[in-house]
Every structure is written in structure tokens, then in C-alpha cells.
Amino acid sequence: MRIDVVSIFPAYLDALDLSLAGRAREKGLLQIATHDLRDFTHDRHRTVDDTPYGGGAGMVMKPEPWGEALDTVATDDSVVVVPTPSGTPFRQSLAHDLSRERHLVFACGRYEGIDQRVIDHARERWRVEEVSLGDFVLNGGEVAALAVIEAVVRLVPGFMGNPASLAEESHGEDGLLEYPVYTKPATWRGHTVPDVLLSGHHGAIAAWRHEQALQRTRERRPDLLGDASETSS
Ligand code: 6GU
Description:
Strand 1 (2-7), helix 1 (19-26) and strand 2 form a beta-alpha-beta unit. Strands 2-1-6-5-7 form a five-stranded parallel β-sheet. The chain has a two-stranded antiparallel sheet with strand order 3-4. It folds into two domains: 2-153, SPOUT methyltransferase, trefoil knot domain (Alpha/beta knot, 3-Layer(aba) Sandwich); 169-230, Trp Operon Repressor, Chain A. It has seven helices and nine strands, in the order E-H-E-E-E-H-E-H-E-H-E-H-H-E-E-H. The chain has 233 residues and is an alpha/beta fold. It has helices at 19-26, 63-73, 92-99, 116-123, 142-153, 163-167, 202-220, and strands spanning 2-7, 31-36, 49-50, 60-61, 78-89, 103-107, 127-132, 187-188, 191-192. Specifically methylates guanosine-37 in various tRNAs. Belongs to the RNA methyltransferase TrmD family. GO terms for molecular function: tRNA (guanine(37)-N1)-methyltransferase activity. Homodimer.
């Protein structure tokens, strides 16, 4: 897989040299490059933003540098990923989907966003995914791109040591949150590990874990249980 990231703060992506993506790159399974959007400007001040048509607070990213950047970086088999708080929620299913692609291009916006024509034009040439990490606001797409890249890269075959651990986690096959986990010692600061986990009864352990996962999901994420009374639409 190849990943290109376009940003006015490419140094944000330095963290990709660490950990998972770093190891995948060392194995030659992943190529990642970052690009400074300002390198695609032509004025002396390397301007990337301007005031919004129609008025209002903040600045909007100009279309021309983005057009040149995407022309340079994207190819026929690219998927363009645009992190934005107004995107569709980024889910594990999309992470799996993107992990099967050959080339991802992340367009990291700042300010109040990128001129909409950049996205509209990109959709005429590439698959475009505008994604949000949740109902909160970041100053730009860089931190969101890091999160999406980590979620995708760990699913690419050969990138992770133990494929079983990929299926067994939260938002995995059964759609529930993960059950609580424990390790030694059996008592720590007066808190004990649940007896069933020390029992050696695999059936009882599996049943307990499933019940814990259900209880957690009911309490924290009832929307995941597909109860129509809990969904907003
Ligand atoms: Cl993807 N981008 C920004 N700027 N803010 C966010 C977000 C993305 N997801 C949640 N907040």
C-alpha cells in the first residue's frame, strides 16, 4: 500500500515513523510520503487561504493549491480521504475497506475547511471519502489522518503479527465493545480478578465475557445494539 498526506503541517505526520506504520514501512509493505501544500502555491507568501464568499468568520482553503497537489500526488487507483468534522463517521468497516486499496491520499484541511469545489472536482476523478472521527472539533485534519492511517494499516495483511487479535476486538465480528481484561497478580491494591477467569472452565469464561461485553455495550454504546428506540434516525 502507498499513502500520501498533503498538509500545511507535514511535521504532524512524523509520528508515522514510530510503531506500527514504522515497522510496516521497514518491511517494505507500506510507503508513506508527506507533502507541504504550500509547495503547490506560486505567490511570494505561499498563500493557502482566503476569506469566505458570503461572509462569516474564519478562512477557507483556496482551491488552486489543492488542485495542483492532488493532480501531482493522486493516480488512477487513488482513494482521496478528507478528514473533516462534517464527514460521515469513520468506522471499522471503512477501515477494512480502505485496507484493501492500493493508494490512499489524505487531504488535511485547516481553518474552516477546503473550498467545496476541490472535493466536488476530486469526486469526478477519484473515490473520495469525507470522514469524521466523532462529534468534536479538531483544528485540522492531521491528527485525524494519523488515527485513520493507524486503523487502516494494522488491517493490511502481513502488517500485524497475530491475525486472531484483529477479529477479537471491539467493533469486531459481533459488533460489541470488548469485555474487561486482567493479568497477574490475582490481587492488586485490594482488587481481585473475577473468580470465573481463574476457574479453567472455558465455557463459563466465554459466557461471562459475552455478558460483560453486552453489559458494557448497553451502558456505553446502546446505538451499537441496533435497538430502533436508541437510534437517532
Ligand atoms: Cl476528521 N477533522 C477535524 N478537523 N475535526 C474532527 C474530525 C476530523 N473528527 C472529529 N473532529
